[in-house]
């Protein structure tokens, strides 16, 4: 699966130093997106965490330290991962693959998606 930045912008990769974007001829600047993902300190890592819940039967990936338009981030990440809007479970309830926790301002992705989310964040420029 090929992950792409959410919005192609005509900026040469010389300013960002991204060799893959140089081949494509475009990259995305996080300053031009309606949301921001802040890296951790002091290690400057992306705030992407994988958790097992329910005795290890439920796997989730959490994206933390977010600000700005979380709905736009949810849609861009959903498009990048190739996920549908949602599904209906066995009891007939509608569930989302990527949900927003408005209290903690975090995105919760169903499944072990940490590597894909980290790669997408790096391609986007965060």
Automatic annotation (TrEMBL):
Residues 1-33 are annotated as: Disordered. Keywords: Mitochondrion, Ribonucleoprotein, Ribosomal protein. It comes from the Eukaryota. Residues 12-29 have a biased composition (Low complexity). Pfam families: Img2. GO terms for cellular component: mitochondrial large ribosomal subunit. One of its GO terms (biological process) is translation. Its main location: mitochondrion. It is found in: Mitochondrion. Gene3D superfamilies: SUI1-like domain (3.30.780.10). GO terms for molecular function: structural constituent of ribosome. Belongs to the mitochondrion-specific ribosomal protein mL49 family. This is Large ribosomal subunit protein mL49.
